[in-house]
Amino acid sequence: MTGRGTPDFTVTQRLVTLGPARGEHPALIGGGAAWPGRTLSHAGLAMILQTAAAGLVRRGVRTQDVVGLYVPDAVSYLLAVHAVRAAGGIPSPIGRDATVDMMSRQLTDCGARLLITAGPLTGDALRAADDAWVRQVISFDEELGTIPFCSLLSMGWRPPAPATPDDVALLPYPGPDPVTHGQLAADLGRLSASAPITGRDVVLAAPPGGSSRDYSVLLDLALLQGASVVAACTEGLPDAARAHGGTAAIVHPGTSLPADLDLRAVTAAC
Length: 270
Prior knowledge:
Helices cover 36% and strands 16% of the residues. By secondary structure, it is α/β, with parallel strands linked by helices. The chain has a domain at 43-170: 3-Layer(aba) Sandwich (Rossmann fold), CATH 3.40.50.980. Helix 2 (42-58) crosses helix 3 (74-86), helix 4 crosses helix 5 (122-131) and helix 6 packs across helix 7. The two termini are 27 Å apart.
């Protein structure tokens, strides 16, 4: 894990490599803005990340460019994070509770080239982008004033960008507090012991919140293990668990799960 271009070093590279062998086994099950009610296989995820990366590069994303993320659910979060990394960019998640002014300051401070959003968050995202002079807003919905995420998927494909352990992989706020690929790899090792997830699991994931670093690592761990990730709202976890045969849930600390559901709560201050 020392040189630029090291095979399968980043999580994104590993997902793209592992995807074809896992075939049609579900990776992402949409319960929100991205692919609502639809299932994306591990093989399909690998392909979408490569085509979305090509689209982002065509839109001007260059190595180590920062891209803001203001998304409402786990599926859109995962697609946005890994598409940006595959293009060589750095995702900077924006908290769900951020005001338009807070979003604008974050986008300005980190020098974001563009912003990815979805669903009911799009209106505030557009206002913040305008205040921060971010001229490209990509949305998982076809909202007026945005570029549809699906339009990125028709501009060819490219393998995930290479990276070194010292390259920044995530830029959480407040801060900024840069997190490198090497640090994320160490986090994965730590959480794999304390939050065991296997390829047989169906993991329900509450919307993004709190520490985007821990949230990202838990979601990545699930996908790397070959599990299926279901986007679910916190209050909708019981229904989602019954509908999809959920076995584990990534939830915020303190969230109580119904006693009649055989769900393992997975938390890491996420």
